[in-house]
Amino acid sequence: MIVNRSVPSAVVIPVLGYDDVARASDWVCNAFGFTERLRIGDHRAQLVFGDGAVILTARDPADTSTHSVHVRVEDAGRHHERASESGARILHPPTDYPYGERQYTAEDIGGHRWTFSQSIADIDPASWGATSINI
Q1: Which string of DSSP letters, residue by residue, matches 10-33?
Q2: CATH number of the structural domain spanning residue 83
Q3: Which phi and psi angles does 26 have, rounded to 5°?
Q4: Is 6 inside any structural domain?
Q5: What's the pLDDT at 36?
């Protein structure tokens, strides 16, 4: 797997939605001992704890979900094919992003959202607007 400075190294990463990401990040770090790794504007933060990670994201007012799961995979295209063949509802097809990731999002049989992400390049987070805190 390619190492990409734009994403935490953890393989499975919970993604939690908040109304105020900065406030939530400060609270989670203070209360639970996480360290902020990256801040992306006012809508996203990556936190780490040991070899684990969590992503905090701005809650979409049109979306009632408060969480999803982010999973790093070797080949997002092949993984997407498997998920599609198994009946996963594909919400977003595999797409390449400027932060060096190819991702797709699916919904499982319980209505839970999963984003599967393949690192395709090592990208400096500052090049796409993130503020590195602890890399």
Answers
A1: -SEEEEEEES-HHHHHHHHHHHH-
A2: 3.10.180.10
A3: -60, -45
A4: no
A5: 96
| 57-69 per-position pLDDT tens digit | 999 888 888 899 9
Spatial separation of the C-alpha atoms in residues 22 and 108, rounded to whole Å = 30
Confidence label for 6 from pLDDT (cuts 50, 70 and 90): very high
Q: pTM of the full predicted structure?
A: 0.89
In this structure, is residue 1 part of a structural domain?
A: no
Query: Could you tell me the residue range of the domain that residue 122 belongs to?
Result: 12-132
Rounded to whole angstroms, the Cα distance separating 94 from 102 reads 6
Close Cβ partners of 30 (under 8 Å, ≥ 6 residues apart): none
Amino acid at 53: A
What is the number of domains present in the chain? 1
